[in-house]
Amino acid sequence: MVLCDREFDSMRVFQTLSNLGVDYLIPKRITSSEHKAIEQMERDGQEVAVESASVHVEQGSHAMQFLYVPSTKSDGTTVFGTNARVTPDEAEAFCRRYSSRWQIENEYKSIKHDFLAKTSSKDYRVRLFYFVFAVLLYNIWRLTDFLLKAAAEGEMDYAPVITAGECVELVSSALLPPD
């Protein structure tokens, strides 16, 4: 299942993913037709609705669904597009997967800002090495944090015990010989 940002809300993107045999879940921009559906849901007293639709573009066509679910950020309704078969009873739980994306975004930001070495090289091999090394450092940090929490028998929440900067200092002191 591919979870994309709202910027990927496009029938051509939906079809490309379908052509690749990939299930997708993408938030929709709310247009006048979605507003009408939401207004109808409110009149009917519905919190969740599933609307069947289809994509027809140059690259092909496929069946899809629009899922109308309560917003997790505010009052109101959020609309998602998917090619997976989802019943109204499953729609809210199915779309809750999307709210877990924030963790991935935060992890990538941490890799980019805390662990990724700066380079001006245009050589993809150098850039790939730096990125893979940054991901390795990030994983060392998260593993170290997990082991510290397990040893202290503390709560396994998301907040780290050891900061990214402290982890980088520990790793660099082990890699670089003292003066």
From TrEMBL:
Keywords attached to this entry: Membrane, Transmembrane, Transmembrane helix
Annotated TM spans: 124-141
Annotated ranges, domain Transposase IS4-like: 2-140
InterPro entries the record matches: RNaseH-like_sf (IPR012337), Transposase_11 (IPR002559)
GO molecular function, one term: transposase activity
UniProt keyword Lipid metabolism present: no
Gene Ontology BP annotations: DNA transposition
Superkingdom of the source species: Archaea
Protein name, UniProt field: Transposase (TCE33)
